[in-house]
From TrEMBL:
Lineage: Bacteria, Bacillati, Bacillota, Bacilli, Bacillales
Protein name, as recorded: DUF2533 domain-containing protein
Amino acid sequence: MNEVHQAITAHSQRQHALVRTFIELDAKREAYIEEAVSLCQRGEPFSVQNINEVTKQINELAKNGIVPQRKYVTVDMVKEYVQKLNNKSS
């Protein structure tokens, strides 16, 4: 019985670690997105490379079936989002 308990505990700890890593990566991704949006709003050059590097890491974690995948972001997606924000505020 003790072996079963240990196996369940180990499995639960691995899942918890995956979720914790996902939360950290997702927060980092959101910060990169906010940075790109801010730069775009100011008309400054920006890149989506950092966003998509973190997205790739998240999607690797998602292969375990515990956490959701995230979409890759394009420069055009950021520009379209900023345009929508500008249209709402005018």
